[in-house]
C-alpha cells in the first residue's frame, strides 16, 4: 500500500480558491456512484451539470462503484435512463473486478464459481467466460434441516464470490461455506465490504460487508477483496487511460472505501457529504479510521459552483 504525502496534511474545505487549483492539476475524476451521483434511483442535485462542465473542460470521467448488483452494461443503462451519457467502458464496478480477478489469476475454465450476490456478478462472470452457479436462482431455496439429509455441493466450484445480495439466505450460506471449506484451494472473493449504502434515497441499507461477514463467520476465513479500498481495479484504469494517478481525483462519500482507495492509489481525494458520512461526524470518523481526504464539500455540484 502506498500512502501519498497528501494524506498526512489536514483536510481542507473545498472553496473558490482551491477548487480551481484542484481542477487545473487533475486530468481525470473518479466518482463513486451511490451517495455521490445518486441515491437509489434518484440523482443528486446538480450532478449532470457538473459532469457536463468537467467533460467540456476535457476531463476524463470514470465511475468506480463497489455496488456489485449491476454489470457495467446495466450501469451504463442506468446512467442513460437518468439522462447522463456514460459509456460502459467508463464504468469500473466491483462485479467487473471479481470477474477480472479470476481472469488475471488464470482461474481454470473448467472450474465453476458460486455466487452469493445478484445479477451483476453473474453477467460479468459470463462475459469473462466463466461458469457461475447460485445468485438469484438460489434466492428461494431452503435447505432441509433433518436427519439423514446431506446438503450436496458441486466439488468443481473453485471460487466463491460474495457481494451485495438482498436475497441472501441459509441455503446460499451453507453452499458457499461448504465450497470454501471442503473444495481444495477454493478462493473466497469479496466484491467489497461496505457496511452500508444508500440503496434508496431516504435510507441507508446493509452493504455487502454484511454478506461477507456472514461467510467469514461460517468459514473462519478472510476474503480477497477486489473492490475499493483495494487498488486491484486501478491497473485496468491505467491500461485504459494514460494518466498518472497523481493527476486523478477520487470523489466519494465513504472514508473507509472511496477515500482510502484514492490514497492507496496515490490519487487526490475529495469527500462529499451527500451520502453516508455527514459533516458533523466526519472529523471524528476521519481520526478514528485514520483516513483523511485532501478536500471535503457538501456535494459534487460544489465543483461547478466554485469554478
Ligand atoms: Mg458511496
From TrEMBL:
Its EC number is 3.1.3.18. Keywords: Acetylation, Chloroplast, Hydrolase, Magnesium, Metal-binding, Phosphoprotein, Photorespiration, Plastid, Transit peptide. The active site is at residues 32, 34. The keyword Hydrolase applies. The keyword Ribonucleoprotein does not apply. GO terms for molecular function: metal ion binding; phosphatase activity; phosphoglycolate phosphatase activity. Substrate binds at residue 228. Pfam families: Hydrolase_6 (PF13344), Hydrolase_like (PF13242). GO terms for cellular component: chloroplast; cytoplasm. It comes from the Eukaryota. InterPro entries: HAD-like_sf, HAD-SF_hydro_IIA, HAD_sf, PGP_euk. It is an enzyme of class 3 (hydrolase). This is Phosphoglycolate phosphatase.
Amino acid at each position: 500500500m502506498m500512502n501519498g504525502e497528501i494524506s498526512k496534511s489536514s483536510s481542507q474545505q473545498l472553496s473558490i480558491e482551491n477548487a480551481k487549483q484542484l481542477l487545473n492539476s487533475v486530468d481525470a475524476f473518479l466518482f463513486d456512484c451511490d451517495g455521490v451521483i445518486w441515491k437509489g434511483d434518484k440523482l443528486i442535485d446538480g450532478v449532470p451539470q457538473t459532469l457536463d462542465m468537467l467533460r467540456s473542460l476535457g476531463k476524463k470521467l470514470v465511475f468506480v462503484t463497489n455496488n456489485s448488483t449491476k454489470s457495467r452494461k446495466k450501469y451504463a443503462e442506468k446512467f442513460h435512463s437518468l439522462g447522463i451519457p456514460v459509456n460502459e467502458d467508463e464504468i469500473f464496478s466491483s462485479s467487473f473486478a471479481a470477474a477480472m480477478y479470476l481472469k488475471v489469476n488464470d482461474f481454470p475454465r473448467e472450474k465453476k464459481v458460486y455466487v452469493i450476490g445478484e445479477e451483476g456478478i453473474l453477467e460479468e462472470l459470463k462475459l469473462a467466460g466463466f461458469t457461475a452457479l447460485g445468485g438469484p436462482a438460489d434466492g428461494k431455496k431452503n435447505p432441509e434441516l433433518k436427519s439423514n439429509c446431506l446438503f450436496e455441493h458441486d466439488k468443481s466450484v473453485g471460487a466463491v464470490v460474495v457481494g451485495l445480495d438482498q436475497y441472501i439466505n441459509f441455503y446460499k450460506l451453507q453452499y458457499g461455506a461448504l465450497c470454501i471449506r471442503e473444495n481444495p484451494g477454493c478462493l473466497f472473493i469479496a466484491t467489497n465490504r461496505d457496511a452500508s449504502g444508500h440503496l434508496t434515497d431516504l435510507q441507508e441499507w446493509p452493504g455487502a460487508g454484511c454478506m461477507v461477514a456472514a461467510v467469514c463467520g461460517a468459514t473462519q476465513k478472510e476474503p480477497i477483496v477486489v473492490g475499493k479500498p483495494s487498488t486491484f481495479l486501478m491497473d485496468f484504469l491505467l491500461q485504459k487511460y494514460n494518466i498518472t494517478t497523481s493527476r486523478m481525483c477520487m470523489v466519494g462519500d465513504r472514508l473507509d472505501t472511496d477515500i482510502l482507495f484514492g490514497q492507496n492509489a496515490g490519487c487526490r481525494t475529495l469527500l462529499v457529504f451527500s451520502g453516508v458520512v455527514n459533516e458533523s461526524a466526519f472529523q471524528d470518523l476521519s481520526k478514528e479510521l485514520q483516513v483523511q481526504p485532501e478536500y471535503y464539500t457538501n456535494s459534487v455540484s460544489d465543483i461547478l459552483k466554485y469554478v
